[in-house]
Amino acid sequence: MINWDATQVLVTGGASFIGSSLVDALVARGARVRVVDNLSSGRRENIQGHLDAGRVEFIQGDLLEAEVVAAGLRGVQVVFHLAADHGGRGYVDLHQVECSTNFILDGMLFRAAHAAGVERVVFASSGCVYPNNLQTRTDQELYLTEDLVRPPYDADNLYGWAKLMGELTLQAYHKQHGMKSASCRYFTVYGPRGVENHAVMAMIARAFIGEDPYEVWGTGEQIRNWTFIDDIVAGTILAAERIDDGRAVNLGTMERITVREAAEEVLRTTRHKARIVTRPEMPTGPLNRVADNRLAKQLLGWEPKTKFVDGLHRTIDWYFSTKDRAQVRAILGRMLTER
Amino acid sequence: MPALVSIVLPYLNMARYLPAAVESVLAQSYAEWELIVVDDGSRSEEARLARDLAGRHAPRVRVLAHADGLSHGASATRNVGIAEARGGYVAFLDADDIWLPEKLARQVDLLERFPRAAMTFARVRYFSDDPQGAAEFDQPFGALHEGLYSPPKLTLEFLRDASVYPCPTAVLVRREALQSVGGFDPRFRKVRTDLVAWTKINTHYAVHADSRIVARYRQHPASSVAQMNAAGNYLRYELAFYDWLLHYIETLPPVVRAEIEPLACERMYYYSVQRARETGWRSRLAWRLAVAPRLAAYHAFWRQSRWLKAMLPGGASEDMRPRIERVE
Q1: What pLDDT, in 10s, does the model give residues B304-320?
Q2: Which domains does chain A have, with CATH numbers?
């Protein structure tokens, strides 16, 4: 167990969607939190309240620079490493070079963390580490168990490979140097502060601007287990508290939702009456990706608390009540393939 | 293209106040509206005034009436207007009330920003045009918070604190939601017409609460509420409402019903005893019941004890007594 009150924490990527939500939860637990973020996808306003209250220290900088890494790690006991070059499906398919910088980023951070005497590193990994060849058939009721990530590895794009290397690197640090660590494999996270380059947020944004016909990328038959941000945050903190040996654990629901079902629920909930058109030629990702979360239950006592439909409603409430239609119209096209 | 709002204004002999109400509609900053004045059997002179007023603003303002020309109460009258409404949103304005100019603009924006909400409601400022009357005051917001309420949370809030539930003048509702719950219940003719309709909506749909003052609510001796209070009929109407509520929640899913029932039973019980005391029914049993404490006990009795229900005092008149035959 960690006494968060007496703990100095670093959250890399802490101004982003998941990062800032994690910061909220850590601050609520009393931790002293430092955030390093280059604001490439993060936004200062996500943590502005904490900055104003003096509860969070913020370093704006790029973790590919050694000085930034060193400054971020000074005096830190626990690192939550969420920073990465990432985006939605369009981005990870089309921007492999950018995603490959994550190899450098993770390697530098882990090495510096060890050198600085950090007690524990929690790494935001991804469902993208799972072998592509297991996720190609929608007629299988497959749940990805952690042990399916083993040789021969077949990760999803360079983004997935970097996450996989990150996990293996942390395990090596634990084995060789005893640095405590855990990896959380996030599965398609969504929720308030989410960004339009991810599927659920894009669906909500399309409804928000009244898109008709309403585009769905792929055939719509792809299966996902969208997992609500609050559950992801709770699981990540539990992983910090209960896993020492670098093990990777899935954080994802076992609800199997097709993209089309999600789109229909978005249209129903937002009362947007539009014709759905599928775009099979656009980036779609794996056809069948759903976590098995029994290990998280066993190791962490974690289970997702938010059903997809409830989380979707909360996300829609947030999106519609905070966004501006003209602004969303202006950025949406770019967001779908950029970051 | 901005959405059309249909405004339903039930009208019964309020010629004195109607022009101010209509003026407040004409002064709205939101322009996409139609006003449907529904005459609930006014005297011919007063009815003519309403028609004349509407005629000056036709076709945006129309006057309808009941087919038989008689008075059917506020609920049935609003339902006539709802049936004729063409807009996706429905607003209500009582003939003696006045909207503030941003009322529709704000509420349309809120329903667009909260697509899950079937209705948004705000607050009114009570006023009296009698210089000797009570000072103006704002409707309380009580323990409510701004934002969305999932069913049936608002029902509980409204039962706990009747001062916070909205006047018809302060709501904007989606027409499809209103129609799917059957609109207003014509059995309620004057008071509690609104609470019955809101209960039907907020037990089925999410509803948005807004603390903004959007209208002025006129307090005067001819209003339904003033007449009810003057006649000392308050308890009778409360009992009628809770009688309706206890039957209505039978139609809801068990989990929703279970949330409302304890409070509804407690209130029914409380008002029954009050009414029994008021009407002079002072048997020993009534006194015992009056002091018997605790919600859990009411709940258990109500759910399980047919004999107890049969003994509950329902007041003097036969029709006010809670009906006890219930299929468990």
Answers
A1: 554 555 555 553 333 33
A2: 4-186+228-251 (3.40.50.720), 190-224+255-287+306-335 (3.90.25.10)
